[in-house]
């Protein structure tokens, strides 16, 4: 099977915003407790943060980490997580039916951000709470001393404001599962007023308003239109979420989901444009895809806890999806989609980072290991920075229920800022045929392959485990070459690969 691709130096989509390689960390399951934080662990620092976990997180070079939820935030009192630890209350978390000790709060999270070299993107509770809590929290985090909240922060050990720029106005407010769910009009009014108050404090904050929880919501995409009608001029980003699943074990359909993701983004881009035109606005609103990943492997095992049959456990094993090789392809396809939508998707957060639907797993008192999906995220984050290329792709296709005709070859191209290297990320969706691919490199000086990493495995269900942590990992590719301005490469059946030429 053969495919042809043309990359031209002058045909570009947009500069990729590095923030599409951000992550999400929620007070959920073992993400925090025995995830990033485990006092007494052999690698723990003086504050109790696991050094082994910090190291593998840091390697991902996530520009931002969204915190503290998620559904958790919609009944969270941020004040519970400040002040002396011994005085912090244990609360029942209504979102995940667990106990929250509040050992980790905003101060500790900010310290951890420094350790892993990332920046915070903080979510506000617009579910059980509202404007007052939101403005107080923002002032606590960013306000000067000499006034109540800044002075309280100083008393709690931090005089300097943290100067957090990115704020989410609630989470998934359209969802019936959300504490404090609202109609689009209710949420639009509230978030518009919260945005006004926050801007009265600091005009330059970047604000994210909630879009639909996923494209299957009955209110999608009217929700986005109504919410933006209320908030367009006061917000910078519209938040979208999407999780992929393959419950039916139908790989062909599963791998077509990235096409629906692409259409989802396209539809919302159109809604944004309609509202912009209605308002005769000069302001731009971009997409913040602040939750995306594969999530379904753990659904069955989570039921007892989520239905309250196990009381209110502390840091139980929740949403611990164990990712297989097939999920490598899905994560690669999702990242390729964000690169190709670089003109409108400016922030994206893989949900989540540690233990909870995460590329990184830990064992209490034991090791950390990388799931299969760690690898496409790592390599795309490291090398998918620069300008997205508008590739012309001619690939054989197949028919799907999910998205109609889908190409076997999925490919994204990125030129680095120095103009020296072009990086391609490619997925072969075909189960048993390799794709012989010729990439015509037009207007580039690229002369040779400088790096080539391939992920493939005969068993789609193969996983990495604590005992066998490196079963699924990239391996150096072979046989690719640049000849006469054409990159020749072969994509094995069901494979993900990164190839860099320069
Ligand atoms: O990431 C897990 C959950 O998925 C988040 O808490 C919520 O926002 C979404 O439904």
TrEMBL record:
UniProt keyword Hydrolase, yes or no: yes
GO MF annotation list: alpha-L-arabinofuranosidase activity
Domain Alpha-L-arabinofuranosidase C-terminal residues, every copy: 290-495
InterPro entries attached to this UniProt entry: Alpha-L-AF_C (IPR010720), ASD1_cat (IPR055235), GH (IPR017853), Glyco_hydro_b (IPR013780)
Enzyme kind, highest EC tier: hydrolase
Keywords, sorted A to Z: Carbohydrate metabolism, Glycosidase, Hydrolase
Subunit record text: Homohexamer; trimer of dimers.
Name recorded for this polypeptide: non-reducing end alpha-L-arabinofuranosidase
Species name: Rubellimicrobium rubrum
């Amino acid at each position: 099977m053969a495919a042809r691709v043309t990359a031209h130096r002058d045909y570009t989509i947009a500069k990729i915003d590095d923030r599409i390689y951000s992550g999400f960390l929620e007070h959920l399951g073992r993400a925090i407790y025995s995830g990033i934080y485990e006092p007494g662990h052999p690698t723990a620092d003086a504050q109790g943060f696991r050094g082994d976990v910090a190291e593998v997180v840091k390697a991902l070079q996530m520009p931002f980490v969204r915190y503290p939820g998620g559904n958790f935030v919609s009944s969270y009192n941020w004040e519970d997580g400040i002040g002396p630890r011994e005085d912090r209350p244990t609360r029942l978390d209504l979102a995940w039916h667990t106990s929250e000790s509040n050992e980790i709060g905003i101060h500790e999270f900010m310290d951890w951000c420094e350790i892993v070299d990332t920046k915070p993107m903080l979510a506000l509770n617009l579910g059980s709470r509202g404007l007052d809590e939101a403005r107080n929290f923002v002032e606590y985090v960013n306000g000067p001393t000499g006034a109540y909240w800044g002075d309280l922060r100083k008393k709690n050990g931090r005089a300097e404001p943290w100067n957090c720029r990115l704020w989410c106005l609630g989470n998934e407010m359209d969802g019936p599962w959300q504490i404090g769910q609202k109609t689009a009009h209710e949420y639009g009014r509230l978030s518009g007023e919260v945005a006004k108050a926050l801007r009265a404090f600091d005009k330059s904050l970047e604000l994210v308003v909630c879009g639909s929880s996923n494209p299957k919501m009955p209110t999608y995409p009217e929700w986005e239109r109504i919410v933006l009608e209320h908030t367009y001029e006061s917000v910078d980003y519209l938040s979208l979420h999407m999780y992929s699943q393959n419950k039916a074990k139908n790989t062909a359909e599963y791998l077509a989901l990235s096409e629906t993701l692409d259409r989802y983004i396209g539809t919302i881009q159109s809604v944004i444009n309609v509202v912009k035109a209605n308002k005769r606005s000069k302001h731009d609103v971009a997409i913040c895809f602040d939750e995306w990943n594969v999530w379904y492997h753990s659904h069955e095992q989570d039921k007892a806890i989520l239905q309250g049959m196990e009381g209110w456990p502390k840091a139980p094993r929740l949403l611990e999806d164990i990712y297989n090789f097939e999920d490598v392809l899905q994560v690669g396809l999702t990242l390729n989609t964000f690169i190709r939508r670089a003109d409108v998707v400016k922030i994206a957060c893989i949900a989540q980072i540690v233990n909870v639907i995460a590329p990184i797993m830990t064992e209490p008192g034991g090791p950390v290991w990388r799931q299969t999906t760690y690898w496409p995220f790592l390599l795309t984050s490291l090398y998918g920075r620069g300008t997205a290329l508008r590739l012309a792709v001619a690939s054989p296709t197949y028919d799907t229920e999910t998205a109609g005709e889908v190409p076997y070859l999925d490919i994204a191209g990125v030129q680095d800022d120095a103009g020296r290297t072009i990086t391609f990320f490619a997925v072969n969706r075909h189960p048993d045929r390799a794709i012989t691919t010729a990439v015509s490199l037009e207007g580039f000086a690229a002369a040779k392959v400088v790096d080539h990493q391939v992920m493939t495995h005969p068993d789609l269900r193969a996983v990495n485990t604590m005992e066998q942590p490196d079963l699924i990992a990239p391996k150096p590719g072979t046989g690719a070459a640049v000849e006469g301005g054409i990159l020749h490469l072969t994509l094995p059946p069901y494979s993900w690969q990164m190839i860099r030429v320069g």
